[in-house]
């Protein structure tokens, strides 16, 4: 009987510990969404899991990257947050930083071995997100990290094609300077120039018509 009581006590204690950890994690995720770095730091010190995830798979680091919270992202990275842990859609911290255009966070992630070539569930990579939104500095940083300037992704689209489709002239110009090929075709047989003309991207169309 005593053994049974002791066993039940241990089970209850373990359940309470799990509940406490869950509460800490929930508070950590809430503090991250609120941008409260002091509270985030304190909760991690109290035992919250630095890579805890919310219902859509966002970790504190992913949330910080999506919101452009550079000091918080730096703190999380330096404290050992997983720089490659993705959300349920496969969005990594680096993809989030690339989409947001935060070059400082992108640099931190790459310096801490973020996978620059990772693809999300729809097949997009950080360089595609950055190129389509005209974040030239991040595109260049990804190329410096070893991403192939002529890599073809889903539907055979290249970074130049993404820049062309959204009329990102500065990004397209930099990609061309780094060796991006104009003659590559997507799965429809369209070149970057064709895409620019189709989407009304007049600046990139003009750029690609030269030379």
TrEMBL record:
Keywords: ANK repeat, Repeat, Signal
Name of the protein in question: Ankyrin repeat-containing protein
Signal peptide: 1-17
ANK repeats, residue ranges: 56-88, 89-121, 122-154
Gene3D superfamilies, per database record: Ankyrin repeat-containing domain
